Amino acid sequence: LLIFPREPVDERPIPWDDSVRRPLRDRARQLALDLMTRFDLPDGRRIRAGASAATHALLDGAAERLLVKQRASEDLRLARSLAERQGIPVEVHPDLPYRGVAILRPEAFH
Known about the structure:
It is built from three helices and four strands. It is of the alpha+beta class.
């Protein structure tokens, strides 16, 4: 049995307080407002932010558009493949704070 030496790990807890939460929350809210304006969305319910949420929206057949931070992101390989098969446009937006965002079709809520 070959055992590799373990890298030292910083086991101190990661701080999770308002100084961390507030900027992340504000950035997410600003993204929602920007996308609502850019895509003429009445509210933020049609936005699914994050690689997992975007992929899930595509699996459900609810997405009308996929926005990605980088086209070649391995985390979005399935999402890109699903979008391509479903004829859904994939747009690169390097300024996204998430790796991927799906915009849902309006009828996904009826």
